[in-house]
Amino acid sequence: MKRILYDLAAADEALRFSPYCWRIKLALAHKNLSYETVPWRFTEKDVIAFSGQGKVPVLVDGETTISGSQEVADYLERQYPNEASLFGEPPARALTMFIRAWTEDMLHPAIARIILPDIYAQLHPKDKAYFRASREKAWGMAIEDFHAGREGHVKALQAVLAPVRRTLAGQSFIAGDAPSYADHIVFGALQWGRLMSAAPLFAADDLLLAWMDAVLAVYGI
Ligand SMILES: N[C@@H](CCC(=O)N[C@@H](CS)C(=O)NCC(=O)O)C(=O)O
Is ligand 1 within 6 A of the CB of residue 51? Predict the structure, then answer.
């Protein structure tokens, strides 16, 4: 059975930078499910119109189409119960929803505040006008104005990440001895930052980078 993931790409087709798509790539690896990706650009709404909405990830699993990263993760958990659980025993899924909310409400904005102009620079030319208009409207400021005070925003990001560093100082993964979907969610955010930031966000010996490499190593990615 064919499994296809629509995956956000930059001008360079190999640069796949969506934090939400990264969650799902790790989730598929966690479930030991093979898949192919289709590189997708922001303005290719027509390509994913069959999913009934305009964002990625979109997963096509045989006859089934699912969009929304949480919907995809829940689908995989339901559909493939014999593979390793993405969440673990109850109440782990409920606790993972806190990690998701914290990541999307605190971590994503802290990273976006730094890397938005770097993303813009690397987008496919056909996506640039759409990205500029939508992000400038959402943030109420021009892309060029994001450059000012970068250093302060990198510092602010480290403060946001303090609980993650403290957690990982005492255990191998957010979920304990092995990664679960909570790790995938935070990994997706940091991978987005790591791939797109023009200047490194973390020191080479940062424990967060070691944890990211450990997550990838678990899945052989
Ligand atoms: N709540 C959605 C968010 C997905 C999302 O925002 N995806 C971005 C890529 S990172 C997207 O496709 N954006 C399209 C757009 O901004 O038009 C999820 O969890 O999957």
Answer: no
